[in-house]
Amino acid sequence: xxxxxxxxxxxAGQEAAFEAAFSTARAILSSMPGHRSHELHxxxxxxxxxxxxxxxxxxxxxxxxxxxSPRYLEWKALLHHFYDPFxxxxxxxxxxxxxxxxSPG
Length: 105
Description:
The protein is globular, with a radius of gyration of 15 Å. The protein is α+β, with helices and mostly antiparallel strands. The protein is built from 3 helices and 4 strands. It has a 4-stranded antiparallel β-sheet.
């Protein structure tokens, strides 16, 4: 499993429109082969800053599967015009034996 992390800076005043568009776009993401889960977080300290975390089965599921699919064009049309600047996406793998587990609660 890999974790995609995308820090997103949204154009000023476009936050509500971005969230509405993401509400539609998330169905595209969820439908992709190799998608496990995703989360969108809004920054508390900096307006317009979000963090998108997506868990994929593999790097290829994201890079070739999702980005190479016709559905990615729909994703782009819904979301890419909100970004300023365009995000740099990074991919991570868990460090063996050091991944956190949920605390009993």
